[in-house]
Amino acid sequence: MSLRTDLGKVRGLGSAKEGVAHWWAQRLTAIALVPLMLWLVINIAHLAGADVKAVQAWIASPVTSVLLILMIVAVFHHMQLGLQVVIEDYVHTEWLKVACIIAVKFAAIALAAISLFAILKIAFAG
Amino acid sequence: MDTRERPLSPHLQVYKPQLTSTLSIMHRMTGVALAVGTLLLVWWLVAASLGGEAFTTIQSIIGSWFGRLLLFGWSFALFYHLCNGIRHLFWDMGKGLDLSAAYRSGWIVVSLAIILTISAWICGYHSMGVL
Is A49 within the bounds of a domain? Predict the structure, then answer.
């Protein structure tokens, strides 16, 4: 016998509400990051000791630019979701907890914007 | 009535460290370390876009012994978090949750993380012409 309401079953989320979206986004970004990070590390290892011209040429190639953009979006989304869980577990003062979560969200978006701008600048303006 | 001083729970320091719990807290610690490490990634991308002195500066910082030590720690944190993350994804599917499987996958994760870290550094030194 299920104790769930008919409406809850139809909506599929039960009583979990937006927690499921957070959990699911954490997993989806994790799956995306497996190939993206392996690709990044292999390429950075190949670029070890390379001069700025070689690094810029690598970033400017279309495949690299697109993969770097996808990587940056997934990394900072995944980072924000993960740090939020850590903050929720250890920061028990309500206002401080909310302030930390907001600060991490803003920082993640700002760092992602800076990275994306740098990638696009190299790709389009050289 | 006297109330006896009861022990507080959990008394983490009296437990023998277990592979499962150690790897669990390591997953969280490497995650936080990697979040700090993104600053280096952003700095590197910005320096590459500026070129000239900005790139020479980060190149020399990463190339220093302390920079390499940081990068080594960061690379191990990345490979560990990646491998253990895949272990978590299998758990999410309900696979490998019994004790023996959890220990087995734990040792696999540790070994793989070490192997991948060393491989990446061999690859890096090889492209620098050192190896």
Answer: yes
| Nearest-neighbour CA in chain B from A99: distance (Å) | 18
In a domain, A35, yes or no: yes
The number of folded domains in chain A is 1
Q: Provide the token pair at B17.
A: 């460290």
Q: Which residue in B26, B123, B127 sits closest to B78, CA to CA?
A: B26
Distance to chain A for B116, nearest Cα, Å: 10
Domain assignment present for B6: no
**Residue B79 in domain:** yes
Domain with residue A42: its CATH number is: 1.20.1300.10
CB–CB contact A48 B45 (8 Å): no
**Are the beta carbons of B32 and A75 separated by less than 8 Å?**
no
CB contact under 8 A, A59 and B89: no
Q: What is the mean pLDDT of chain B?
A: 92
CB-based contact, A41 to chain B, within 8 Å:
yes
The domain tally of chain B equals: 1
Distances (CA, A) of A102 to A83, A84, A88, A98: 11, 9, 12, 6
State the smallest CA–CA distance between residue B109 and chain A in angstroms: 14
Q: Is A2 within a domain? A: no
Q: How many CB pairs under 8 A join A and B?
A: 87
**Residues B99, B97: Cα–Cα separation, whole Å:** 7
Residue A5 in any domain: the answer is no
Q: ipTM of this predicted complex?
A: 0.88
- The mean-pLDDT minimum among A5-9, A118-122, B94-98 falls in A5-9
DSSP secondary structure code for residue A102 in this structure: H
Partner residue facing B127 (CB), from A38, A45, A56: A45
